[in-house]
Amino acid sequence: MSETAPRPVLARIVAAHQGMGDGGPDPTADLQSGLSRAIRMASIPFEGLFARPAEVQVSRSTTLSDSVEALPETGLLAAIEDHEGRRGLVALSHPLVDALIEIQTTGRVEEAELPARNVTRIDEALCRDFLDLLFVAFAKETAKAAGRDWPDRITYGSRVKDRGQLNLLLPERGYHRLKVDVTVGQNRSGQIVLVLPRDPGMARRRAAGAKAPAKERPQDWATQVLTALGPAPLTLNAVLMRVTLPLGQVEAMEEGELIPFDPSDLRSVTLEGEGDHVFARGSLGQLGGKRAVRLGPPDDVGRGAVAQGTRIPAPAAPSNAALNDAAAPAMADVPAARSPDPMAAAGNPAPQPGFDPDAPMGDGLLPEAAGLPDLPMAGFDPNAPIG
C-alpha cells in the first residue's frame, strides 16, 4: 500500500483518536539524524562492517497496517518494547543479517550476497549486540528531540516468526516508521526498518514539564525545615557501654550473672537515635553524689589506643574474691586505653555476694567528676537503673 492510498475506515478512526497531525513540533529531522548517527555508532565495535546509512525515510503517524507492508520480505523481524509495555518493531533485511554474521565469524563482509534463508536462533543471537547498541545510541541521540512522543528507551523483545500474528502482538495505534538503506563492507546493501509506538500524551507531559518554571529555594529553607520538624518526637537511647561476647557465652548466661566493667568503659557514653546515629557523646560521672552525664567531645584518656586502631589484650579473668575484696585496686591497675571487647577473656563470673545494683555511685568511682559545678538537678533519681 502506498503512502497516498486511502486507508481503511477503522485506521482513519484510530489515527484521529491518537491525535495524528495535531500540529505539534515536527520531529522528522531529529528522527533522521538520530537514526543515522545511531547506526554509525552501533557499527563501530564491529571492525570491518563500516555501516554507511543513506537518507532516512520517516513516515510519521502511520498505522500498523501501513508499517507492516513496508517491512522487508526476508531477514530478521523482532518486537521491541519500553519499560511500560509499549511495543514496536525492528527489521533487518537478510543482506545485513548475513553481513553481521560474517563479520563476527570470518572477520570481513563477503562481496557476494548469499540467497535469502530463514533466520535461526544463532543468527538472532549474533545480531542482538548490534541492535542493542543501536537502541542505546538512538535513545541518546533523540533524548532532546522536539515533540518527542515515542518511548525514551526501547529494548529488544523477541523474534517474530509468523508475520500474520502481528495484529495480535501490536495494537492498532499510531506509529512512526523509519526506513533506511545501509551499505556495509565494500558494497553490500540492506535495509533497517524501525517502527516506534507513538503516544501524544508523552509529548504533552514533556512539554508541560519543560514549561514549568523552576522554583527557587528560599534562603531560610533550613530554618523553615527545622521549625516544621522541631515539635516532632524523637527517641534517644543512652548507651553506657558496648561489649562483644561469643554467641555460646551469651546463650549460657543465666539470671544473676554479672558483666564486669571499670571506669574507662564509662568514658564513652553516647546518645543515639534510630539506626545507631550518634547525636552526642559524653562521660558518666557524679554530681553531688548523684549520677550525671557530662556531654562534650570524646575523652582522649578514655579512648586511648583504641582510637588509633591499637587493640590491647583484655586482662585475665579475676576471681570472685578479688572482685569483692580488691575491686578498686584492680580497676586502678587497668590501663585507660581498653579493648572494645572487655569480655574477651572475662569468662562468666558467678553472682557476687553483697552486690546492690541500685546503690548510688559514690564520690570515689570517678574522681575526675568531683570538679564539676554543683548544678541543681531537681527531680533526679540517683537510684534509677542505668540503661
Summarize the structure.
This protein is of the alpha+beta class and 387 residues long. The chain has twelve helices and eleven strands. Helix content is 29%, strand content 18%.
Structure description:
This protein is about 30% helix and about 20% strand. The strands form 2 sheets. Strands 1, 2, 3, 4, 5, 6 and 7 form a 7-stranded antiparallel β-sheet that branches. Strand 6 and strand 7 form a beta hairpin. The model is unreliable at about 1-5, about 15-20, about 300-350 and about 360-380 (pLDDT under 50). With about 375 residues, the chain is α+β, with helices and mostly antiparallel strands. It has helices at about 10-15, 30-45, 65-70, 95-105, 120-140, 165-170, 200-210, 220-230, 245-250, 300-305, 320-325, 325-335; strands at about 50-55, 55-60, 75-80, 85-90, 155-160, 175-185, 190-195, 235-240, 270, 280-285, 290-295.
Task: Provide the descriptors you would attach to this structure in a database record.
387 residues; four-stranded antiparallel beta sheet; disordered N terminus
